[in-house]
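Request: Mind sharing a record?
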Amino acid sequence: MKSLTIFANDQIAYEYDKETTIDEQRLAFFDKMDSDMDRGIKIQGELITKPDTKQRATFVAMNLIRAIKQDNQAIISASCAYLTNRIPALIEVRARDQGSTVNIELVEEH
């Protein structure tokens, strides 16, 4: 199984099977997410008006970490699917809770 592993403070918080089939409806939803993010996103209080792929992925990963804390399976699944669809080489999301902020590192296979 090829997987996307989500780490929170160096502990495995979730594993997602990257070979999960993504249907047309979900792909259309990802396009809508991208168009929504085209209006700008906030990462750690900074407004990014024209986010690139990595910034979008960081934003989605931050929401993913929040969803894991809340055990929101729908958002966890959608976020992981978005990340693996938009960055196929992504194998790990590493989140470090720094008190009032969460630092996200995206790790791709080489």
Notes: The chain has one domain: 3-108. The two ends are 17 Å apart (CA to CA). The helical segments are 24-37, 53-70, 73-86. The chain is about 40% helix and 30% strand.
